[in-house]
Amino acid sequence: MPMTPEQRPPMMELQNLLISAESVEAFFCGLSGVAAATLTGRTRSTIDCGITFQEGSRRVTVAGSSPRAVRLDQIEQRLGQGPCVEALRTLAPVLLEDVESDPRWPSYQQELASQNCRSVLGMPLDIGRDSTAALNFFASGRVFDDQTIKETAAFAGAASQAIRLVLKINDAQNTVGELRSALEGQTPVSIACGILMAQNRCSQNEAMTILTNASKASDKRLQDLAKEIVTHLSGETPATFFQS
Predict the structure, then answer these.
(1) For 207-224, what is each residue's pLDDT tens digit?
(2) Does residue 240 lie within any of the structural domains?
């Protein structure tokens, strides 16, 4: 019988997520689910998890293991107070053990109580960037003991490494996309310049000046005019030698 997410080792779940996620957004949605399932298995109580990012003074909920997780996380971001906000500020785990007895955030705790949420654990993520992030865990009972917090910190460490890798891959993909666009635009321009150099027996700079002036005179984009020149001469549209 296949293991449930709660039964599978968290590291295995993170590895599977890294392999299967098709986007950064999908990864964070999956991560919130893995985090919630991990603590649900550890505490034997239903745990919801939200993920918050902060850049400068702006905080936003980027994912949640359930609609309830997103709703509870957004309450904290709206009020600007609570364990997750404090964890982002201090870069240390912050526990709200009981909304009925903790004196720190009365407005926030009152809203949590109305949502049948009794305890919250904010766990920072070290993502190695100007922005910061945190996992926000919600429970209907007092289930976050010292050992659970310790194990959650270890999970957050592994999750932080996974996030760094995902963001680096995303940066690399964006760079490749920008390079591809640049090459696709530059290829016909370079070929057209070569044609003009041969026809006019001029330098590359002079050919580029001719092409630029013609572009302005015809009110056409430089790349579009270059494509017309190449197509007129060869009957084929130029292509870049850049394969993904």
Answers:
(1) 888 888 888 888 888 878
(2) no
Give tens-digit pLDDT for 81-91: 999 999 999 99
Q: Regarding beta strands 58-64 and 47-55, do their DSSP bridges make them parallel or antiparallel, or are they unpaired?
A: antiparallel
CATH of residue 194's domain is 1.10.10.10
Number of domains in the chain: 2
Q: Is residue 51 part of a domain?
A: yes
Counting every residue written for the chain, the total comes to 244
CA–CA separation, 85 and 106 (whole Å): 15
Range of the domain at 215: 178-234
HSE-up of residue 88 (Cα within 13 Å, Cβ side): 25
Q: Among candidates 28, 29, 36, 46, which has minimal Cα distance to 10?
A: 36
Collapse the DSSP code of 231 into the 3-class scheme (helix H, G, I; strand E, B; otherwise coil) and give the result: helix
| Residues 42 and 148 sit within 8 Å (Cβ to Cβ) | yes
Distance CA 126, CA 158 (A): 10
Please list the residues that pair with 39 across neighbouring strands. Answer: none
Task: Report the CATH number at residue 108.
Answer: 3.30.450.80
